[in-house]
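[Solved] Which block belongs to which protein?

Original post:
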Amino acid sequence: MTTTAERTATSRRAQLKFVLILGGLSAFGPLSIDMYLPALPRMAEDLRAADSTVQLTLSAFIVGLALGQLVLGPLSDALGRRRPLLAGLVLYVVGSVLCAVSPDAWLLVGARFVQSLGAAAGVVIARATVRDLYSGTAMTKFFSTLMLVSGLAPILAPLIGGQLLNWTSWRGVFVALTVFGAVLLAVVVFFLPEPSPVRVPARLGQVMRTYGRLVADRSFAGYALASGLLFASMFAYISGSSFALQGVYGLSPQAYSVVFGVNGVGIVLAGQLNGRLVGRVSERALLSSGLLLGVVGGAFVLASAVFRAPLALLLVSLFLLVSSIGLVMPNASSLALASHARSAGAASALLGVLQFVVGAAATPLVGLGGPGTAVPMAATMAGFAVLALVAYLVLTRKSQPAGLIGEA
């Protein structure tokens, strides 16, 4: 007969296992995008391709990541999570191998698209699996814990990629991604049971009706747009901060890397703070606080850029805005998925696609002012933070969905 302490220890070990596995799956996107960025100039030279052609490898990956989620999310609702996930992981490994051996840039673009379809399975099914296993505040706490693992990926990926380039070529970066995918494939095969007993039809008409129902759900749309629009601020920061901080404010590449890493740690810390507060403070209150923090941070970022305030004020403002992601994403994801247990895969797909589509729309706005100014980046970040808060306030309504297992 097991004691309470033994049951608690077993439960914690099981949760740690899920955190590591699902965190690894969630990290596919940032690892696959950020790890090879330091190698882009070498790739263009090695493949004798224009920079714009090599940059298409990034565009192809983002498009495939969005389309793959739209397909694999509903498919996992119909077939269960394991089979689409295993197929996706195999596809990721195959795509990574093709990337490593691609003889020219256009074949590399195609290989990146194949790789991204596999990565989409990890991203969308990890989020849906959390909904299968948890509900209520327990789901929000788990999403917050998950950020400790997945939130470190965009911080560490460029550093890992840069270090790999010290002793291997860009092809070695894709070999490392192949190994990462293969390890996760083995872990899922042996340690991740089927979490979703619910099955819904996978016919095209039914899938489209499911997506239509989700889009028409004001509450879901509000939470999804709030997270997607704030994520667009993050995209603007990622695409514009290196030019603004180095070109305008004179930071060295090393100093910029430190700033980028500190802001990434801010996301992780905010996520862990959220996990400690949820249960004592409602998810909606925490989400509202995160969105307000983003607006305040965005306003100060814009003011700092417009009036050329001291660098310290800009850095603190950026930290506030970027860290707000750690409060917004767990609560918005939990609240958006709460009422959609039967279609968690489709709902997870829409959440993920919105982040990338809106984020991709924000990226070109950063360069409108040309070099020598941080105002376009700051205005884009502040504007999308405000839009996120407005979408949340206009579209959402307070709801208390019934809990499933794991509610605490």
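(Second protein starts here: sequence line, then its structure tokens.)
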Amino acid sequence: MIDAGATTAEQLKQFADRMENLLNEIDGLKNDLKDLKGEAKSAGFNIRALDRLVAIRRKDSADAETELLNDLLLYAHHTGTHLDLAVPETAEEAA
């Protein structure tokens, strides 16, 4: 917290110190993330797919569902897979 009785120069120094500490923490977290991705890659996982999975999981559920459906449609189009909808049979049709 910034001291209310501090001079302008002291406040500026405190802000600069806090900003520097936060940037150092961010750099450390970036290094941790890089190490984690390296571990996942060495375990045989596709890092781009993992990044995509995390991006989808971080979105809210409505956005994630829309994104998943879009990805499914793109995959089906790219692979030539048919996405026929299975409609449940009624009792009359089954007889």
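Accepted answer:
You had them paired correctly. Confirming on the second one: The longest helix spans residues 8-42.
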